[in-house]
Amino acid sequence: MIDSLFLINHSGDIFLEKHWKSVISRSVCDYFFEAKEKAVDPENVAPVLQTPHHYLISIYRDKIFFLSAIQTEVPPLFVIEFLHRVGDTFLDYFGECSETVIKDNVVIVYELLEEMLDNGFPLATESNVLKEMIKPPNILRSVVNTLTGGSNVGNTLPTGQLSNVPWRRAGVKYTNNEAYFDVIEEIDAILDKSGTTVFAEIQGVIEACVRLTGMPDLTLSFMNPRLLDDVSFHPCVRFKRWESERVLSFIPPDGNFTLMSYQVSSQNLVAIPVYVKQNISFLEAGSCGRLDITIGPKQTMGKTVEGLMVTVHMPKAVLTVNLTATQGTHTYDLATKVLVWDIGKLNPQKLPNLRGSLSMQPGAPKPEEYPSLNIDLKIQQLAISGLKVSRLDMYGEKYKPFKGVKYLTKAGKFQVRT
Amino acid sequence: MKEETRPCVIPGCFSARRHDDLKEMLDSNKDSLKLEAMKRIVAMIARGKNASDLFPAVVKNVACKNIEVKKLVYVYLVRYAEEQQDLALLSISTFQRGLKVQLISISAFFVKVSTVLKVKKQSYRFIFSHNKTSSFDFSLDPEQKDQLIEVIEKLLADKTTLVAGSVVMAFEEVCPERIDLIHKNYRKLCNLLIDVEEWGQVVIINMLTRYARTQFLNPNINETDSSFLFPCMRLFKSHSIALWFLSELFRAVSLPIEQSHDAALIYTAIRKILICCLTHVHVSCFSEVQYVVLQNVATMTIKRRGMFEPYLKSFYIRSTDPTQIKILKLEVLTNLANETNISTILREFQTYIKSMDKDFVAATIQAIGRCATNIGEVRDTCLNGLVQLLSNRDELVVAESVVVIKKLLQMQPEKHSDIIKHMAKLTDNIQVPMARASILWLIGEYCEHVPKIAPDVLRKMAKSFTNEEDIVKLQIINLAAKLYLTNSKQTKLLTQYVLNLAKYDQNYDIRDRARFIRQLIVPTEKSGALSKYAKKLFLALKPAPVLESPFKDRDHFQLGSLSHLLNAKAGGYQELPDWPEAAPDPSVRNVEVPEWTKCSSREKRKEKKVEKPFYSDSEGESGATESADSGNFSEEEVRKPERKSKQSKSDSESESESESESESSESESEDSEDSEAELKKKKKVVSGGGGSFSVMTWRPALKSYELLHRITGEGLSVEYCFSRQPFIPDANMVAVQVHFTNNSTSDTKSLHMEDVKLQSGMRVKEFPEIELLPAGETATAVMGIDFCDSTQTANFQLCTHTRKFFVSIQPPVGELMRPFFMTENEFKKEQGQLMGMNEITEKLTLDVKCRNEHAIVQKVTTAANLSRVPCGSDKECRFAGRTVTSSSLVLVTVATKDQGAAQLTVNCEKMVIGTMLVKDILLALTQ
């Protein structure tokens, strides 16, 4: 399976290598650097590369390339998924996944990698299991360790790994027992020039933060579960009960986790919370253009739209912009040619408007492409698909937990074509 | 001092003195110093620096008391033991001493080190017993292989999910050819699959796929061992990677599946896979995942366009996608294009052409070209669009259009001489060599269409000949030769000039070509017989190119594999074996059922605690097995009231279940037994021969009807429902699931049916006799009734050992059909054929509660066993099905209008069924 892992930073330095079987020379990365050179964006480097003796599968996240070298046939998704899991684990342990943090904690990183992959095959990848074997660093512990000579290494084999609920560790204790669920929905949409929906879809996740003592068994039920026709769950959810009763029954992992993700299919009608009236034009002569954008509420279900933001990737020829906004602030990055208009709260009485002129590079021909607008927005206390949690019950423990559900609608990949 | 000990200050190169420093620290008595030294060494290894000369100093510390030091020493050893074999072997005794310490994580490390040393392992059992199973370095001597296989065989028999993944992995590495080891464990593995962690699932599914290919007949031809499909169905829980593999599985099962009994099942499965693919395309913010998934989707769309067509819009491109994703999505869109959706796709393409990403624009132009060649009707539209692009300002765009136009024109050049003229003019401006070459080729090939322009172009080209790229030069020679043959009067001198220039070109290929062409076309006394045929040679009719998807021939690689992605066989890639000709003996998979002894419920409970129940249940029955889940619950009773409150769904089973629970713990304890017991239980659930189908889930939407009330039945209550599953022994029968509950205090014996009175044409397949139904127990059986597509009743007597009850089953019309999957187009076509008398239309006002689409779908599918037909408009819901006996189509359309007004249309060949169905659906929608 996976033979070696190289971590490579943005500028192309290998700052960590780890081998599981025999050692593969780091010169194998040269093929990767070649491909990276060719691709303009780091995102455009092909994830799978073939070299004479090895196959290189890489991912790019948090400005680090995770590059794995493999020698034999293995499903590429398998490796990619694993590499992301490594990244997630770093994030979980150190709070961020950056070059400096990995360099500072190189010993823990090494120990983690040793546990996560055994002879090239993933072994312990559940964060709860790992945390029992290798304790995450924190200031208090490092102080105590230097004073007492204690260690970061757990000296018992994690109980979770041996039980039939490997995602939960035994003996969890809290003084405040609480369970919070966030229903977060993202609208993915493409609107065309006239404002009609070309494509729209809702992607939802339920993020949970559960801090409960002991081994609680939770049941979460929805008012309208039939809305969700396409779901995927955290492994803890009992699938059978979902199939037969449409309730989520599970023994939760400790702490934060994604309980389920769902998709409300494009067959259903998706409410689009805002409309955008835009007019961007470039004049044939005189190297200038005009821009006029107005945003108004459409189907907001009576809630306020917040955190409204419009991002426009301008054509290369646009030098500067001279715009006035009735609300919010706008910035134009000269290097990347990105115009950002941060509006904030949408006031239905007074619609925000941004208008003005664009000045173009003199002599440059009129751009043929028109930039599309990317919209970002947030609506609190609303799940746009209409999903509602009806109740949460707990079995298996005597105490009464504190429960809470929050809804949030966000714009995902929300694009308006011009 | 403090500076010295920080690992981060280690400089790029190590002097010998530095290493001495480390050695000193390692030799010291203080653990903290040792730890610091080890940390620095590990940091060195991580940076790829060589630390092998420290080996002797490090290995001494293997006996160190401090766990952390010890662990780091092992980390070091794993890395260097192979290089320093002799030294490591010397210290093996120290390692073994370390084993005695009850520290499992450390002893696991020991095993790792010793495998690196290829030391014979005595410690398998020790390690395995702690479930810290993992793979070993399996490149061992052959004599050890047998021993290893023995261990694997033992471990395969293990019933815990924790071991399964690792063991199968080991099996695949050591002895994949020993398929006989799997037989006995096959069913168990299928059952365990859902609870194994995701990495293990991938390996197990892979192995099972291979197993199925060698052990079962091709399901297209024959019935498959459906139990294999079941675990897979249930897998659709979460693990995304594992899911991916299923697509391969279903490719193996493959279409055409209409003939197969499992049709409905497989359709649902395939739908699930699709959704999973699409979710990956969308949700995943990781472009790498998208990349891999789209590669696979692109391959699948070539053969199974229909499957993906409803999801066309999911592949629309956003301006923020990375280029490689855009190009893959484009590929998928092109593969999906057909006569009906081409206009939408072309409209999308038009937007894409305006994109700023020029590589993407070029790919779009090529995609348009491909659509135009594949779909004749839009060829002219595409061509016009492309010609317009010729006046684009961006040179790359123009060049790409020229190349594509060239290919298109080759199909019908006569009609388009003006386009060729237009392109001839472009030679003045276009600089991209490929485009210039294409134009020249076009002019040469069709010079008779542009007799005046062609020589002029040649004149211009002759002037700039020396400055052209090689491919352009070759085409100039080509053009000259063709013109010489058709129009030698005007071009003789020009041709000579060009050939002379080429004679002294730097490129040998061009010199060669010039010489060859001169010999061929300019007749001299020496020229051979060939020159007579020169015209035929040059102006032969060329076949038009076929524009094909680059993914066309990829499907011989297993989907999802690395080889598929690279389109080249990767090392270690195993082809899937073909289905066997004759089915191997299925009995090898039978597991001996241990003698089932009854014991008191208290004992049972104790046993339950000792034995780890599977987290989720491992067989199909929902109701009864639900309590297997509850193996995890400490308080059974807490759950029960809650359940009762949920009775609104009136699922008869859960009611009877909770009743039975209170009286006896038999059924419940049974479930918590291991899979073998469940196998036995499976036998106990009597079916009409339906195999595993009888254990399909009991969906809450199913309405159950009373067959025999508890009072009249003297304690025996019977309910039935239409399970909506295909009835395996006879496809023309409707499956009726009958649920018996013995509420009395005495056992009921020999439950069977007798004296069936039927209308002519109707048939019944009785359920097998239930020999014993103990007090408080429940049992389920499946019978099949052929209602001849009518709602006539089936009357029969239900007999026990003491009594006979007259009962009758009358089906609602909606149960006389089975879902039929069709696309929107097929639906419209079929609907067009079922007009006039076969069409019944009814206006209605929708109930306030079911004005959204979702509610309508729910109501209609509850009322009738129909499947949803994908539909582009959101004002209409369409459903399709076939009647069970005569397979006549039943098409239902619900078109909604403003304020709850709606129109219901039913098209059905059988008018009686149509009328009744309209009534039922009307009732469902208006109530």
From TrEMBL, chain A:
GO cellular component: a single term: cytoplasmic vesicle membrane
PROSITE patterns tied to this protein: CLAT_ADAPTOR_M_1, CLAT_ADAPTOR_M_2, MHD
The keyword Protein transport appears for this protein: yes
InterPro entries linked to this entry: Adaptor_comp_med_subunit, AP2_Mu_C_sf, Clathrin_mu, Clathrin_mu_CS, Longin-like_dom_sf, MHD
Family the UniProt entry places it in: Belongs to the adaptor complexes medium subunit family.
Membrane topology summary: Peripheral membrane protein
The UniProt record lists the keyword Metal-binding: no
A single GO BP: intracellular protein transport
Protein name (record): AP-3 complex subunit mu-1
Principal localisation: membrane
Keywords assigned: Cytoplasmic vesicle, Golgi apparatus, Membrane, Protein transport, Transport
Coiled-coil positions: none
Localization: Cytoplasmic vesicle membrane; Golgi apparatus
SUPFAM superfamilies noted in UniProt: Second domain of Mu2 adaptin subunit (ap50) of ap2 adaptor (SSF49447), SNARE-like (SSF64356)
The MHD domain, residue ranges: 176-417
Pfam families referenced in this protein's UniProt entry, alphabetically: Adap_comp_sub
From TrEMBL, chain B:
Presence of keyword Transport: yes
Region called Disordered, residue ranges: 597-690
Biased composition, class Polar residues, residue ranges: 624-633
Alphabetical UniProt keywords: Cytoplasmic vesicle, Golgi apparatus, Membrane, Phosphoprotein, Protein transport, Transport
Acidic residues bias (residue ranges): 653-676
InterPro entries reported for this sequence: AP3_beta (IPR026740), AP3B1/2_C (IPR056314), AP3B_C (IPR029390), AP_beta (IPR026739), ARM-like (IPR011989), ARM-type_fold (IPR016024), Clathrin/coatomer_adapt-like_N (IPR002553)
Record's bilayer topology term: Peripheral membrane protein
Cellular location(s): Cytoplasmic vesicle, Clathrin-coated vesicle membrane; Golgi apparatus
Record bears the keyword Protein transport: yes
Gene Ontology terms: biological process: intracellular protein transport; vesicle-mediated transport
Bias type Basic and acidic residues, positions: 600-614, 636-652
GO cellular component terms listed in the entry, alphabetical order: AP-3 adaptor complex; clathrin-coated vesicle membrane; Golgi apparatus
Any Pfam family: Adaptin_N
Domain of life: Eukaryota
Domain AP-3 complex subunit beta C-terminal: 681-792
Function as written in the Swiss-Prot or TrEMBL entry: Subunit of non-clathrin- and clathrin-associated adaptor protein complex 3 (AP-3) that plays a role in protein sorting in the late-Golgi/trans-Golgi network (TGN) and/or endosomes. The AP complexes mediate both the recruitment of clathrin to membranes and the recognition of sorting signals within the cytosolic tails of transmembrane cargo molecules. AP-3 appears to be involved in the sorting of a subset of transmembrane proteins targeted to lysosomes and lysosome-related organelles.
Record-stated family: Belongs to the adaptor complexes large subunit family.
PANTHER family: ADAPTOR COMPLEX SUBUNIT BETA FAMILY MEMBER
Protein name as catalogued: AP-3 complex subunit beta
Species the sequence originates in: Oryzias sinensis
